[in-house]
Amino acid sequence: MKTLHTAVMALAAVLSLAAQAAFPTAYAPVEVQPQVSASGQYEFDLRPAQQRARREGKALYVYLGASDCPYCRKYEQFLAANLRELVPRFAPKYLVVDLRSQLSVTDRQLILRTEALRLPYADFQRAIGDQRARLLVYPSVWLLDAASGKPLMQMPAGAGTFQTVPEQIEILDLVE
After folding, report:
1. What backbone torsions phi and psi does residue 40 show, to the nearest 5 degrees?
2. pLDDT exceeds cutoff 50 at 6
3. Rounded alpha-carbon distances, angstroms, from residue 53 to 34, 83, 141
4. Residue 36's CB: how many other CB atoms inside 10 A?
5. pLDDT tier at 174 (50, 70, 90 boundaries)?
6. How many other β-carbons are positioned within 10 Å of the β-carbon of residue 1?
7. What is the spatial distance between Cα 53 and Cα 83, in angstroms, rounded to a whole number?
8. CB of 156 within 8 A of CB of 142?
9. Crossing angle, helix 83-90 and helix 165-174, to 10 degrees?
10. Distance between CA 173 and CA 107 in Å, rounded?
């Protein structure tokens, strides 16, 4: 019984952490939870977001964060602290897609699915022409065309992602 209680408490702690980890709600993100297969693959289906973005005439701002990633929390805190400057830049041009993962998910386990592709992380990166096709890094951001699912530009990844408001605005304003 004590083991069950400990397991339940550990699960509650993980779920609490996961609930706190997210792109700030002021940006109206579309949350995409992975479908986890019996083989341990975490598949993120971007097709509904692609369809919605096309209907709204927007590009996709896809954010891959991990519930247990300190660098993700730093980026999310940055976004939350700069709502007034950044939300008006996101809202008219981007549908924010918040992919929820964990650091323990490997690049071979993480599957990204668009209307055109369904591939593990590194293969997906290569298929869309993303030059960051390497190890899985959190956080990662893609600016994708809603129709083609292809990147609109090459993006940075990891701990150095958008450290200042001018850097974030520069990226957002590059896409017309």
Report:
1. 90, 15
2. no
3. 20, 21, 16
4. 12
5. confident
6. 5
7. 21
8. no
9. 10
10. 30
Please tell me the distance from the alpha carbon of residue 108 to that of residue 106, in angstroms, as a whole number: 5
Sign of the alpha-carbon dihedral angle for 51, 53, 54, 55: positive
Measure the CA–CA gap between 22 and 16, rounded to whole angstroms: 12
- CA separation for the pair 43, 77 (Å, rounded): 26
Q: What are 125's two structure tokens?
A: 């990166």
State phi, psi for 119 to the nearest 5 degrees: -145, 155
Q: Which of 66, 78, 95 has the alpha carbon at shortest distance from 24?
A: 78
Question: Per-residue pLDDT tens for 36-85?
Answer: 999 999 999 999 999 999 999 999 999 999 999 999 999 999 999 999 99
CB 53 within 8 A of CB 95: yes
For residue 159, count other CB atoms closer than 10 A to its CB: 15
CB 117 within 8 A of CB 50: no
